[in-house]
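User: Okay, second chain of the day. Same drill as before: sequence in, structure tokens out.
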Amino acid sequence: MLLEFLNIGGAELGIILAILLMPVILIVYCIVNIINSSFKTTIHKPLFLLLVIFAPFVGSIIYLIIRKDYIMPKNNFNQCP
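Assistant: Same drill. Structure tokens below.
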């Protein structure tokens, strides 16, 4: 197969690639989420972007944990008062 000298087949290679791609997917998700979100103050968006860019994996985890305190709530106009 692809990596016969390491005795790695297609399934093992797929698992390794999935494990290696998970942090990249997490970082891209956080960057897109930061760009599309409205924050309570204007300084939070660039600060979170810098956090995720300069400390990618840890910064993404920190952002996902504390973001609810800094993002403005969405207006739900479908509900009647």
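The chain has a mean pLDDT of 86.

User: Thanks, on to the next one.
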